[in-house]
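Q: Trace token order:
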Amino acid sequence: MPGIHGTASDCVGFYLDHIRKQGLVEQIQELQGMTLVCDCRPGEPCTGDALAAEFYASQVEDNEQKTVAKNWRKKSKTM
């Protein structure tokens, strides 16, 4: 809670550390298609925004890994 445990940025950082350490970030794909809501003040760091950023980052990583694998398969076929 901001004010008790640090700034809003600190709290979002603590939250992200927690979900990463607990392995919860591996389940982030379950959020696909869902609407995230929170009670954070507009314009302040928000756990919902942080979750959305983690989700989109995982999407980019998945797409990059798929592209690398696809390119490798194409390359290995021409060898």
About this structure: The longest helix spans residues 47-77.
